[in-house]
């Protein structure tokens, strides 16, 4: 069966569609750009975070460029937020520059870290950072990923591809809509 919008892949990856119906308004929101700027389009999250940091944001909304510092992100989230919005790249099969809005359910993230199990603090991708956050009991009320389909994340190099660069401003607008929706307790805006 065909799945042109990739929803089954998102569910399989631990993501759910934006919730429908009324949700409690949220006030304390962290927006975090993640990725390695030296791997071309993987720098999308950091670039979008830098542009968001220059915006006038509501009280209680913070922005950080976590880069590849998943442990830094985890520690910041552990300070206590009602919601976390992660900006990252994600291969979902769309055209480069396509934006996705995905919500992560806490139960979809693997459980506690077992005795003797190692987590490399220098290689914590967002999934590992979320697992660490969950294992400490610091899960924010809601976790949303605003992701961009990359064109090039395999080659070392500086600068976003043309398609991903063109999507950064749209991503900023999309994150601002998501923040407004979270703050007002509305269903999340889609990537549309």
Can you offer a commentary on this structure?
The protein has 192 residues and is α/β, with parallel strands linked by helices. The chain has one domain: Rossmann fold (3-Layer(aba) Sandwich), CATH 3.40.50.1450. Helix content is 30%, strand content 18%. The protein has 5 helices and 6 strands, in the order H-E-E-H-E-H-E-E-H-E-H. It has helices at residues 7-12, 44-53, 70-77, 126-135, 162-184; strands at residues 15-16, 29-34, 61-67, 83-89, 99-104, 142-148. A 6-stranded mixed beta sheet has the order 1-5-6-4-2-3, with helices on both faces. Strand 2, helix 2 (44-53) and strand 3 form a beta-alpha-beta unit. It is globular and about 45 Å long. The two termini are 23 Å apart.
Distance from first to last alpha carbon? 23 Å
Helix-residue proportion: 25-40%
Poorly predicted regions: 1-22
Give the rounded overall mean pLDDT. 82
Question: In a nutshell, what does this entry contain?
Answer:
The chain is an alpha/beta fold and 192 residues long. Helices cover 30% and strands 18% of the residues.
Which keywords apply here?
single chain, 192 residues, alpha/beta, Rossmann fold, six-stranded mixed sheet, 5 helices, globular, disordered N terminus
List the helices and strands and how they pair.
Elements: H1 7-12, E1 15-16, E2 29-34, H2 44-53, E3 61-67, H3 70-77, E4 83-89, E5 99-104, H4 126-135, E6 142-148, H5 162-184
Parallel strand pairs: 2-3, 2-4, 4-6
Antiparallel strand pairs: 1-5, 5-6
Helix pairs in contact: 2-5, 3-4
């Amino acid at each position: 069966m065909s799945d042109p919008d990739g929803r089954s892949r998102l569910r399989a990856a631990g993501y759910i569609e934006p919730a429908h119906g009324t949700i409690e308004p949220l006030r304390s929101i962290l927006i975090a750009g993640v990725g390695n700027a030296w791997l071309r389009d993987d720098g999308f999250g950091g670039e979008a975070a830098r542009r968001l940091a220059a915006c006038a944001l509501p009280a209680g909304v913070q922005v950080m460029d976590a880069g590849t510092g998943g442990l830094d992100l985890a520690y910041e989230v552990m300070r206590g937020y009602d919601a976390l919005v992660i900006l990252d790249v994600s291969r979902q099969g769309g055209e480069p520059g396509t934006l996705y809005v995905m919500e992560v359910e806490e139960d979809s993230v693997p459980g506690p870290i077992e005795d003797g199990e190692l987590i490399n603090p220098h290689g914590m991708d967002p999934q590992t950072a979320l697992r660490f956050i969950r294992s400490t009991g610091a899960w924010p009320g809601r976790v949303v990923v605003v992701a961009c389909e990359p064109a090039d994340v395999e080659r070392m190099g500086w600068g976003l591809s043309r398609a991903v660069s063109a999507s950064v401003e749209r991503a900023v607008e999309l994150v601002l809509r998501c923040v407004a929706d979270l703050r007002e307790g509305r269903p999340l805006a889609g990537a549309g």
